[in-house]
Amino acid sequence: MSLPGSLLFRPGSLPGTVIPLQPEMPAPAADGGCASAPVLRERGQREVFCGLTGIVWLHRKIQDAFFLVVGSRTCAHLIQSAAGVMIFAEPRFATAILDERDLAGLADANDELDRVVQRLLARRPDIRTLFLVGSCPSEVIKLDLSRAAERLTRQFLPRVRVLNYSGSGIETTFTQGEDACLAALVPTLPATGAAPGAAASSLLVVGTLPDVVEDQLAGLLERIGVPRVDFLPARRSSAPPAIGAGTRVLLAQPFVGETVRLLEERGAQRLPAPFPIGIEGTTAWLEAAAAAFGIGRAAVAEASASARARAQRALERQREVLEGRSIFFFPDSQLELPIARFLARELGMRLTEVGTPYLHRDHQAQELAWLPAGTRLSEGQDVERQLDRCREARPDLTVCGLGLANPLEAEGLTTKWAIELVFSPIHGYEQAGDLAELFARPLRRRALLSV
Amino acid sequence: MQLTLWTYEGPPHVGAMRIATALRDVHYVLHAPQGDTYADLLFTMIERRDRRPPVTYTTFQARDLGGDTAELFKTAAREAYERFRPQALLVGSSCTAELIQDDPGGLAQALQLPVPVVPLELPAYQRKENWGASETFYQLVRALAGKRREAPEAAESAGAAAQPGAAPRRPRCNLLGPTALGFRHRDDVTEVTRLLATLGIDVHVTAPLDAAAADIARLPEADFNVVLYPELALQAAQWLQRHHGQPFSRTVPIGVGATREFVAEVARLAGVDAGPALAAAASRSPWYARSVDSTYLTDKRVFVFGDATHAVAAARVAAQELGLRVVGIGTYSREFAREIREAAKLYDVEPLISDDYLEVEARIAELQPELVLGTQMERHIAKRLKLPCAVISAPVHVQDFPARYSPQMGFEGANVLFDTWVHPLMMGLEEHLLTMFREDFEFHDGAAASHLSHAGGPAPRPAPDLPEGAFRIEAAAPPAAVESLLDAGATPAAAAEAGPTTWSPDAQKELQKIPFFVRGKARRNTERFAAERGVHTITVETLYDAKAHFGR
Fold first, then answer.
1. Domains of chain B by range and CATH?
2. ipTM
């Protein structure tokens, strides 16, 4: 029923009453989990998306922004393929496709870019922020998009602010594109003016969350008593959060390293915490926020009691399917560690290999400590070698990209598309059961089919 | 610099991937940055392929650019050869690698691999996917089938009375053009192979789909080539004709008429009699088109868009075999613009040569067709404009790989065309029945669908005296829902435009007599008609004036 070594939910408690927490978070294994475990670093063919893909969710989140990729036909084709069936009459993203003339003369390329942007903004009076998004070709030919952004900002302010970042594959892996985008937003955020060493005055949650999840977490933090909570990115660029020495930063997503570095430069302080994935992660995440504002655990326990109880019930159903089953992660979004930790500790899955495209040891410190000792960690990718290891491990479930899923299914392995973990609401208590179900479904399906 | 929202074609190296993936034992080493592997999922997800495309990506990063990306390429090529042991290696650059100019061809040659290496030069900033596929296939054929045939032995030539006692062999041809990720290529190959068999013609090699490198080398042994998809195989066929003297077919057998011409053409190329095969040819579509129920198709306005081959063929089938009226035709492939311009002359319409999705949408909105035959892009346009649509051409979508047999070519292909194009339209019989039943006490638009009216109970059977069609209309959707769907077509802009016009009570009553599923359209047309003429109150008279104006 309940988790070994953890009594987050005590059966028999009345709904609505305060469920006492363990005096300590479940302690890391005696050896500190994977805190000092060796990491297999590989380089070779990477079967992952580039940072441009982040546009697919970023443009849904920042509702008055337009994303203009300056790139090649490949870039346009990639976003179209990643966006799948989401064909809108006029989406809030597009590609300015470079042609031979643009390559021949950079001066002309800048003129061409100005022309394209003018046409675009004339068509779309609703746009307040325009991101010029660099790509592999624009980086290689050294098309200076930051100067272009300054030039165009001068032209279009106050109506439109033009920013730039690179989502190129030579610099960013998949979710790192969001990091680059948010990092571009940091200099535009107003300053609170708080003096250095100021006490905590507001909480900034960094990393795109679906609106529904954002509202849930904001509600919890408010009930706990955190005085002010902002989110980055904000839904509308007209209402940016102010930052300064009193700002405490809590990461909703693990892939925002550069953004956090820039926020820290502006005086904000990051709160060390695991990610709000699963009951355990969400509770510790809320407690980190509470502690920063001098609020005790009891307030977290009280505010989250009913949600935790619901999540616990939801997980119990999925645990029947997942407990004892083995799982292998190919690298994809940097969410692999928190998700693997959740599956191991709250659902009893056995971790074989956990691959991640990039491991930020500092930001993932709590996650590493919580991973069961002996888990094989890998960073980067040589997809052929990793496939060899996967075939040898014969896991019950393999988490991988869409390019690998059907071929592995055809080999008899059961798979889970990694990209769904990025596009679906998975954070927080209310989504813990849904997240577990995403892993249970392929296993239940395999058991159902008899053809 | 071209502003692009959605593209019809990928970059040229994706075309090369379609060739490599179609072949059985050829590997493609692509000099490319991280992220270009997205293209794998086109094959594994859209086409549901059970194997990864045989492509190795070098995956260079920014930090490699100052160093030795050439060495990275050589390592990737060597390791790919050792792991996959292909019979031929394609090597080339994606758009970014083209800029760093590493010369994959030269680097791969330097590895001295024991298999043919075919370097591909695919200019990513000028060309697109279909061109890349065509060029790749052509280069591969040149490289693997380059050796000129020795003077053919007498016994080798078809039909010749060779050495005494030896039976003359049957004529044989190659099928050129089917690729991975092709629109119904898999089923077209089956259908055309069957068709050729009825003529006594053997298929020697089908390429590139499911062919081995050794099969490409055997291409010159056939008597002639059948070009199924000129966009992908014309260039190779022209080279085979020049170099090996192999003639090739020009007719693409889509539709009954074109299939009959195709049979006559290949019979001539093979030196066989087309008569028996033509006499035995059976397709239901000509009879279905003649059957009285199809009368309602007459002169329905159709807009056609796709690759040039499918668009030209579809326009011909629409006009000659279904009796529709082609009001517009276009293609996204500039390489084949001439074919579309010529077809446009036949139908006296303005050709649209464009890969700008917004331009295509604007043309469709302006022409107001009653049926759109296009690609997946036009399917989305049609959905927004609330027009019936059938897909006739790539770019493809997972729906374009149906589980069932569903060719576009040959006599069976013609049947498939009839079904898939006509089904989105309202059946003629249904139109008549709805007129007959309008204002009926059971069929008025306020009535719930009969299968919903007894909660929990089994769906009631249709009344025995009602023909099949009537039940289908009723059961298809709750009528109110259908009307709201149609009415949803009135955009806010249109509603605002129609703001000042009001309906007189009589006209309102008359409008209610129009069958619910066309009522929304009638209302919109009438309001537009009134607005254009400054009529503020729509009377019964206005309603019928508008009907006369829009009716053709």
1. 12-129 (3.40.50.1980), 168-280 (3.40.50.1980), 285-422 (3.40.50.1980), 440-550 (1.10.8.550)
2. 0.90
